[in-house]
Amino acid sequence: MTGPFTVCKHDDGDGGVRLEVGGELDHDVSEALSLILINAAEQEGVRHLVVDLAAVPFLGAAGMRSLLTGRQVALRHGRSFTVRDPQANVLQTLRAAGVAGILSPTTETAVV
Predict the structure, then answer these.
(1) Is the pLDDT reported for residue 112 higher than 50?
(2) Which residues face 18 on adjacent strands?
(3) What range(s) does the STAS domain occupy (predicted)?
(4) What is the pLDDT of residues 20-67, one digit of tens each?
(5) 96 Cβ partners below 8 Å, 6+ apart?
(6) Most exposed among 16, 38, 78, 86, judged by the fewest C-beta atoms under 10 Å?
(7) d(CA 16, CA 86)
(8) Average per-residue pLDDT for the chain
(9) Under a CB-based contact definition with an 8 Å cutoff, are residues 87 and 50 in contact?
(10) Which residue range(s) make up the domain with 63?
(11) What DSSP assignment string belongs to 7-65?
């Protein structure tokens, strides 16, 4: 991994949580990312979980698995899960792996 891995949590106070993720999402950070996503998805009062990937320049298989795990846990708890603003190469990776349809990445500005 090059560069720092960061996650900043923004809570809108009305059930929406946005996690701004930064850095390369590879094997080195996948376990931490999974735990962060699971924790956010399991919190009481959360209805919408948005993972903002605008500051993610690289997405590896392990990072993709973390996103899928976070989505699975969110859905199991009745929360929506959205991936937002992936860079072009990250979006291309999601499409090439066949998971873009599952994660439904969007470039729309979400209010969270």
Answers:
(1) no
(2) 10, 50
(3) 14-112
(4) 999 999 999 999 999 999 999 999 999 999 999 999 999 999 999 999
(5) none
(6) 78
(7) 19
(8) 93
(9) no
(10) 24-103
(11) EEEEE-SSSEEEEEEES-BSHHHHHHHHHHHHHHHHSTT--EEEEEEEE---B-HHHHH
Domain count, the chain: 1
The Cα–Cα gap between 63 and 38 comes to 14
- Residue 88's domain is classified under what CATH number? 3.30.750.24
Is residue 8 packed enough to be buried (19+ CB in 10 Å), middle (13-18) or exposed (0-12)? Answer: exposed
Q: Mean of the pLDDT values across residues 83-95?
A: 96
How far, in Å, CA of 104 to CA of 82, rounded?
Answer: 7
CA angle centred on 112, ends 109 and 68, rounded to 5°: 85
pLDDT digits (tens, 9 = 90+) for 57-75: 999 999 999 999 999 999 9
In a domain, 86, yes or no: yes
